[in-house]
């Protein structure tokens, strides 16, 4: 034991002696450089806070500034004790990160940002060297990148611009520090009085307002150009999906008051057991009343279409999706004469997820139609009911709850409301709308489909059927398929009936569809879906009303669809055996179908820029460039998009992409070399013959590994040449250099032809030696 202690003590003494004998650390002495690096980190922290709605800035920025001041004052000390405590603190931060990561497996971006901020705060207390400041610069850049991926609005843009403004002078000072040059304020020093030009050159500062402004302008021009041309993929290319909730939704389950649909705008206080609403005037489920100005009335188990009024526009949701579409929320099966309801509201299946993942496996009816996988990510910006919007035929759902519900109509519901800040992701197998195949669809409906989706009040059934047949009889061409009938009837309702803003309240015994078709000849926008659905049912075509959100307005700067409460509306879904449900929109001013899979927002910024330019030039010029755009540019862009999809499709595509990247890199390198050579010869051609000869000689020896230093005079270069080359070669260098000096500074004419012959002989001797 005594020998062991002696050996440990000896090792400790040797370790201390090595530390003491180590050379002092070369510190970074530029205060401006340190301050700019600190500002970069601060901007990164603030940008992350704004994007993620966190409050790390309140503690991280003050501590980071204190650490920066401390490290400046202690930059000449070894700070062994401080380093020891910082190492322990970093281990603690790592443990904290792993714990948080275990609870955020689906979206670790914010957890990573918190780790970087904590490490930067600790790191700021020990920044003696330039490379330590370089680590801080990288952390600031990563934080800005995380903020960019989390941000769903353009509020991130000003911080990106501020980061750029600070980063450019920081990079300039970092580069000069690497070269060992003085960062700023280089003064001209000479025993002679300098000229004005020399003074101006000597007092030049790389971080002057003028030089930095020029660099920022160039960077912005190139950056915005690249940003405009780059594809804007509105969906996720990697399947690591964000899931988040400000509430403890993970512990929420169905039961009691969480059983039904909870719409904050429609009197959830009066829900009975199992979520059924009490039949009274307060909940607006029947009779006359006004709609809530924030929440859409259709997000309920029972919708009353006799309500009047309008909502005030408000952003409620942001959606990132690989394709636009109708964000479907609820489908209804039973028409009440005043609106719609879900017959079996309490009868739904509960699906539980795995304990360690947020992924739910959904089993929706399959279709024989070709489908496309579309990934959508939804973020609630305001409180919403506990229904889960999605594109049609969802296959997987990533949702922050222990369980979800799926009813007989394939509606998805959550045990908690979609509170502000809640994020979830849906993977859907969206079927294409192949008109040729849908025209071949049969009327082989199952008994369940007939019983559920052909229901119509008997007192209006015959009257509505006659009206529908009357509309269909207006065409001379016979209908060969159900799909053609649905199309024609949808278009007819859209054209023959009008939206009535001043629609009066209906009597209690008055049927909504009957009033729409025969009395008012129109109604509110959602009434068109109701009328079309009942007309189709009267013809024996299964149909239902579905409510949800329109796609909203696509923001090409963020890649999100911005959805408002006023984007919510109802449309008609028609069932085609073996193909499933397809939507038809009879509202005037809307497209006949919701947005399709073929619509693409990938190059929307470039398209908007082109539309702006085309509006400013004469029509013939615009038409000419439009041909170039549609035939050449769009074709080339489509080729690039197809190539990217192939490369990202699998292992073979990845290998092909790597080979293409290597090949293009080689061609680019060769091309750049040729461009440099061409530029050199063009510059050389503009010089006088003597200057050309001298530059050619320097170029030859530079390629041989003997360059002339910029600080060397021609005669100093000659003296060095006698030490590096044989006597014969050095004499030629001397002769050409002396002639150049005589011509350049003495204005003496030289025999350039003779000197060029000597130069050619010199080049041949160099080749022989090689």
TrEMBL record:
Residues 517-588 form the Transglutaminase-like domain. Keywords: Membrane, Transmembrane, Transmembrane helix. InterPro entries: Bact_TGase-like, Papain-like_cys_pep_sf, TgpA-like_C, TgpA_N, Transglutaminase-like. It comes from the Bacteria. SMART domains: TGc (SM00460). The chain crosses the membrane at residues 31-50, 56-72, 84-102, 132-150, 207-230, 624-644, 651-672. Residues 252-289 are annotated as: Disordered. Pfam families: DUF4129, TgpA_N, Transglut_core. This is Transglutaminase-like domain-containing protein. It comes from Crocosphaera watsonii WH 0003.
